[in-house]
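Example record

One chain of 232 residues, shown exactly as stored in the release files.
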Amino acid sequence: MNHPLLVLDHVQKAYAAPDGGAPVTVLTDACLQLAAGEAVAIIGPSGSGKSTLLNILGALDLPSAGRALIAGRDLATLGENELAALRNRELGFIFQQHHLLPQCTVWENVLVPTLTAPRELRTPAALARAERLLARVGLQARLAHRPGQLSGGECQRVAVVRALVNQPRLLLADEPTGSLDHANAQGLGQLLLELNREEGVALVLVTHSRELAARLPRVLELRDGALHGVLE
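Predicted structure tokens for this chain:
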């Protein structure tokens, strides 16, 4: 029997108050299962805890209670080195800002994740994958360009390739279209859906855009610290 790729099992998250008062509870009972290759959008108002949820999904933070599992591994049982290896091998991240290195070319930016990857990922096949993905997103003629020579939409496409270069099983996208105009946002949303299918990578897309969320096969809303199904 195949296990889900991602499981949130009654996850709670609270932070200590800066003034020493009562803890601030952000997540109260977040539950989620995601199969390999599945895509889900998560929406919710500002301050609802979307970033906190994504940090837990990305193994950047741990629940205060409940369990978060990726590929059957309980994140709370892993050491720092194991968590770093999991993030590098299993996860890809895309943010609202592309965070490309301005002094590096498109090609160099895309290969940054491979610098800390295991030896088996630093092969001619890995370089061929990077080249194929850049061609897939229409940037094969931009390899020697630096981020300052690209449009916002092109920079985000570079960031998508960078997130996929190590063949992650799970792609986490945090408001990836938030800094783009409508046309580029539409194009990037469509690209993410196509790559979800073509690459077989599971996708969690956190967005404030209900228009973008509606294009995914499953939509959840983070409300009152828990995930709720959205009925269209």
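Notes: The chain has one domain: 6-229.
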